[in-house]
Specification:
Two copies of one chain form a homodimer. The first copy, chain A, contains seven helices and two strands, in the order H-H-H-E-E-H-H-H-H. Chain A has a domain of 95 residues: Winged helix-like DNA-binding domain superfamily/Winged helix DNA-binding domain (Arc Repressor Mutant, subunit A). By secondary structure, chain A is mainly alpha-helical. The interface between A and B is large, with 38 and 38 residues.
Chain lengths: 143, 143
DNA sequence: TCTTATTAGGACAAAGTAATCCTAAAAGAG
DNA sequence: CTCTTTTAGGATTACTTTGTCCTAATAAGA
């Protein structure tokens, strides 16, 4: 449903949302270690997100990545959109081009609610709100 | 959620369930044309399914693929299992190794029930029952 | 100003998946 | 029995995704 890359990206962004701030930037390497990921690869993902201004960055010693308060208000779906491009989430599970309620594929009605709910969740909740639940121990990022 | 290969396979199997019988075998090429797929690739998938006895085949002129009535009674999930191997369906959407109700990932509770429903649907309904709905025009295989 | 630590970015390598090709084996038809 | 049509299976190719490496740019601190 999501590519590995965008799973990583979501994890990294939530990690930043929980741990970083403009005065407490975090190096790619530290995030990579935390979420157990090859660090040059994560760096690439962060660069992509940085180009789209969803994460902020600063070079040099004491440099690193962080999320501005504004960025934290954006929906988590933005991250997925940037990494996976378009709507991988909207595609028919059986690959039918024009699957719809009018011409449903054989599993349409059992899958459609799943996809819709998931997409809505990512669309309507901000990065910050997901991060809150991690902070409160309601949800987890690793293990 | 499913690989392209297993999407093709599901489509092909349902096509066979709808159109074939032991006395009306269907050539790989015909199925490939129907579901718009490179025919040598589909042939490979059908061979794999045939090795696992979910589709039956016969060589030579008038040869082709078909489903026995017994095969039609097997759950559609079998097809997915054979092609995608293990449980791609059970993995955490965010890629967490040990995502569970005790240590839920940030989207666990919104996605988990729906994944379960989907899996159950594939597990509890036979190929034949999916095929029935296609025959009755309730669901569709192409377009 | 020089050194060092970090991100930026492009080129490249590896792995996995998707797709092709070729030859063999089987089975029906003449 | 031979020819043709079809599946079977292995080897190979192509493509996409994932991951690495190297150099440049930038910023902080000595």
């Amino acid at each position: 449903m999501l590519s590995s890359s965008s799973k990583y990206a979501v994890n990294a962004v939530l990690y930043l949302a929980v741990h970083s701030s403009q005065i407490n930037k975090i190096r790619a390497k530290e995030i990579a270690e935390a979420i157990k990921l090859p660090s040059p690869f994560l760096a690439k993902l962060l660069q992509t997100l940085s180009r789209e201004n969803i994460v902020s960055s600063s070079k040099g010693p004491t440099g690193g990545f962080y999320l501005t308060p504004e960025a934290q208000q954006r929906p988590l779906l933005e991250v997925v959109k940037i990494i996976d491009g378009t709507d991988r989430l909207d595609e028919c599970v059986l690959g039918l081009k024009k699957c719809s309620s009018e011409k449903p594929c054989p599993v349409h009605f059992s899958v459609q609610p799943l996809k819709k709910t998931f997409r809505k969740e990512l669309e309507e909740n901000s990065i910050a709100s997901f991060a809150e639940k991690v902070k409160s121990g309601e949800t987890y990022l690793f293990v």
